[in-house]
Amino acid sequence: MEHLFEVCTGNLPSVAAAVKGGARRIELCSALPLDGLTPSIGMLQTVRGLFPSVTIHVLIRPREGDFVYTEEEVLVMEHDIHAMLPFADGFVCGALTPDADIDMTVMRRLVDAADGRPITFHRAFDRCRDPFGALEQIISLGCRRILTSGQQPTAEQGIPLLRQLHEQADGRIIIMPGGGVNEHNARLIADQTGVMEIHGSASGGKGITCAETVKKIIELL
Asked: Is 197 helix (H, G, I), strand (E, B) or coil?
């Protein structure tokens, strides 16, 4: 089984570069300087039309800041998912309680809205007070993967926890390291954690993905 490099893309040039570099799956979002927000439906439709063969996982995050959402914000996320269902292959989302636990009620609503599309629980996970308990809760929701830096500023720094999470998951869910992943550490992170998927923006500067960096990381993995 070969490793997969998912490329985080925040604009059309980045999507084009990711595909040119050989990416088979992208996370589509907007506003990467804000750690990513929900892209427009027009952006998603355009990417789907231009790159029909790439797998598109869409970030659902209505605002910057924390991951404790109001009822109105949850409605926005549900509406965004419903609108994007015809064009998306999966969704990336996450919600927490004020006590830094998984908000199971909100997450069940988002999973239901996704209508069977795979869900990645995003880096809200890195703010959970109990990562091992949170892992079991996310598995019980039926999510397909967790995007995490191992609760550290970068995935390389988070290798010890990432390895523990991967071992605890035991094939029940995919642990996908992300955060500071580049051509210099991608293989190290994969080797030392045992994971088969890894996530990064492969930025070449100015917030735009570099096709050559994508290609290099895929070759190294």
From this structure: strand
What is the pTM for the complete model shown?
Answer: 0.96
Closest CA to 96 of 119, 72, 59, 130: 130
Exposure pattern of 3-37 as b/e (b: 16+ CB <10 Å)? ebbbbbbbbeebbbbbbebebebbbbbbbbeeebb
Q: Hey, how many other C-beta atoms are within 10 angstroms of the C-beta on 159? A: 20
Q: Which of 38, 55, 47 is nearest to 94 (CA)?
A: 38
* Pairing outcome for strands 174-177 and 197-200: unpaired
User: To 10 degrees, the CA torsion angle through 107, 109, 115, 120?
Assistant: -10
Mean pLDDT of 81-108: 98
How many residues does the structure list for the chain?
Answer: 221
Report the pLDDT value the prediction gives residue 204, as an integer from 0 to 100.
79
H/E stretch holding 145 = strand 145-148
